[in-house]
Specification:
Metal Binding Protein, Guanine Nucleotide Exchange Factor, Chain A; 86 residues; 6-stranded antiparallel sheet; elongated; 0% helix; NAC-dom; nucleus; No apical meristem (NAM) protein
Length: 86
Amino acid sequence: MVQESTARWAAAPGNWNGEDSSKEIKDPRYSPTPLGYKKRYRYEDGNPKQIGRWILHEYRLSDSLIKNDMNYVLCCLRKNERGNKI
């Protein structure tokens, strides 16, 4: 189990705030051990119209699947049209 605090990344002029702790990604057909983790971030810049408009999903492999000490993540960035209040 990975224990982590809610992350916050700075990106001028705002921040990417972690909305939740990492969720395990599993394939029960093969093993109860997690294959990786998924985390969701929301961009905030102080403008109420921007809150929830940009969403970032971060995916990373479980440490047990990585053969070296490098840490990689795959990110999917999307514009949340439902969050658009304009």
